[in-house]
């Protein structure tokens, strides 16, 4: 049957939702999940469901994905957690310190239904509930493992919270972790040499968990307790959103990543402090990178601040930066929020030195350090401005960015999109023109862009078929 007969005048047919997981970028430790020798995988390609042994087969859904410095974790629809990549600190949760290039289920959590996961530089944390509890919020518990977490297996962790405290979210930094309870409290543990635990002091050595109970809303008033709805850990700093949509930041701020105007080589904030420059702006999403921070407002605007030496702020190389000579090299900063995109942004994810966003039109854009292809389609070391990433097909559900790799979780909700998935997996430099023609005639815009980018990036037909 001709393709015109299939798509011609027929109406879209709804089909069961299917998820697709794409991972790309730096692949030194196998963090992209592809069994090949390529160090840099610049083209996102769907990881096949059978790679994970999912019981639902091709219709398997994914709930969450997270990227660490060189490892990756994903949560399947049946509550199973899969990990792969670097494992020198036990961050894969299999009890070993052996890196792995293929996804493997974390068997220690087989009696738990995992809801979400976060990856730090060398550790992992997951929120899960006992399967017999049947999905009640009150039963959501925190599990941690890897560097500084006391175990190479998942370990149930209460910290400063009582055992009956429900956990809403967890975020891992380079050497610290912050967990958010359902009632809006934060607890933090790990290293605190830059004040990233929000305790009002700096400390040497590994610190036990403690609740953060002081937030500086106004400089001329005493700190008070604030109810938090979201938290994000950067390398040595943290950011959180209050129930009023205000952003608080703390920890290391020497590159302007706290957004508090000051800019000194030893600048740090020891307790959460409100980002005054965003006064009157309601924020719904925040993400912290290595030395930069991004926030999405309820109106879809994106703001960014901090280090911009690799282009991770998305405002170009010469756009109101402060510069500072560090070790005979010039580094560029923005010590207060700058508007990057005025509208249309839905989600943001910050890697060590790159940024990803999804927009209302369903597209993914990236910018920043791009030596491994983790931020943009084009072959460049630095992507200074938002650049479309057109390899992924389907509606974006979750973005994740790590040290040098990225991941996207998408859904396909119609027969047309399911067909796009199949065609996207089969596109090569040799058939891109033919598939592009079919995609154009059937209104498959994402597939058209994919084919165009493939032809532009590989004029000689060379591509990694991993």
UniProtKB/TrEMBL annotation:
Residues 164-411 form the RCC1-like domain. This is RCC1-like domain-containing protein. Keywords: Repeat. The keyword Lyase does not apply. RCC repeats lie at residues 19-78, 79-130, 184-244, 245-299, 300-361, 362-412. It comes from the Eukaryota. One of its GO terms (cellular component) is cytoplasm. The lineage of its organism: Eukaryota, Viridiplantae, Streptophyta, Embryophyta, Tracheophyta. Pfam families: RCC1 (PF00415), WD40_RLD (PF25390). It comes from Tagetes erecta. The keyword Metal-binding does not apply.
């Amino acid at each position: 049957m001709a393709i015109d007969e299939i798509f011609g005048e027929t109406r879209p047919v709804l089909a069961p939702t299917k998820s697709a997981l794409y991972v790309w970028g730096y692949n030194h430790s196998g963090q992209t999940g592809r069994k090949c020798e390529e160090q840099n995988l610049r083209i996102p390609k769907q990881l096949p469901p059978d790679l994970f042994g999912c019981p639902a087969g091709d219709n398997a859904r994914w709930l969450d994905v997270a990227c660490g410095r060189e490892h990756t974790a994903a949560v399947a629809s049946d509550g199973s957690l899969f990990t792969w990549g670097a494992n020198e600190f036990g961050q894969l949760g299999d009890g070993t310190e052996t890196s792995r290039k293929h996804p493997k289920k974390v068997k220690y959590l087989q009696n738990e239904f995992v809801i979400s996961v976060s990856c730090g530089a060398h550790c992992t944390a997951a929120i899960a509930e006992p399967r017999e509890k049947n999905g009640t919020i009150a039963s959501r518990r925190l599990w941690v493992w890897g560097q500084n977490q006391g175990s190479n297996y998942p370990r149930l962790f209460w910290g400063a919270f009582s055992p009956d405290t429900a956990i809403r979210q967890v975020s891992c930094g380079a050497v610290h972790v912050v967990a958010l309870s359902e009632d809006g409290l934060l607890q933090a543990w790990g290293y605190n040499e830059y004040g990233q635990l929000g305790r009002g002091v700096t400390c040497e050595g590994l610190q036990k968990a403690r609740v953060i109970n002081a937030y500086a809303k106004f400089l001329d008033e005493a700190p008070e307790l604030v109810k938090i709805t979201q938290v994000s850990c950067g390398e040595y700093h943290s950011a959180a959103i209050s129930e009023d949509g205000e952003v608080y930041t703390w920890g290391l701020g020497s590159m302007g990543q706290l957004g508090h105007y000051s800019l000194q080589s030893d600048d740090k904030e020891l307790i959460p402090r409100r980002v005054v420059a965003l006064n009157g702006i309601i924020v719904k999403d925040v993400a912290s990178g290595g030395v930069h921070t991004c926030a999405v407002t309820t109106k879809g605007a994106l703001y960014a601040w901090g280090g911009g030496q690799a282009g991770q702020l998305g405002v170009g190389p010469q756009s109101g930066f402060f510069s500072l000579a560090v070790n005979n090299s010039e580094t560029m900063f923005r010590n207060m929020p700058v508007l990057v995109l005025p509208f249309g942004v839905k989600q943001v994810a910050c890697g060590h030195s790159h940024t990803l966003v999804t927009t209302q039109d369903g597209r993914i854009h990236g910018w920043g350090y791009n030596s491994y292809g983790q931020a943009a389609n084009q072959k460049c070391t630095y992507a200074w401005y938002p650049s479309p990433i057109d390899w992924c097909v389907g509606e974006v559900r979750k973005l994740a960015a790590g040290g040098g790799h990225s991941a996207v979780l998408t859904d396909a909700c119609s027969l047309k999109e399911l067909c796009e998935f199949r065609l996207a997996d089969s596109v090569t430099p040799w058939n891109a023109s033919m598939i592009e023609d079919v995609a154009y005639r059937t209104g498959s815009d994402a597939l058209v862009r994919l084919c165009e980018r493939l032809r532009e990036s590989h004029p000689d037909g060379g591509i990694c078929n991993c």
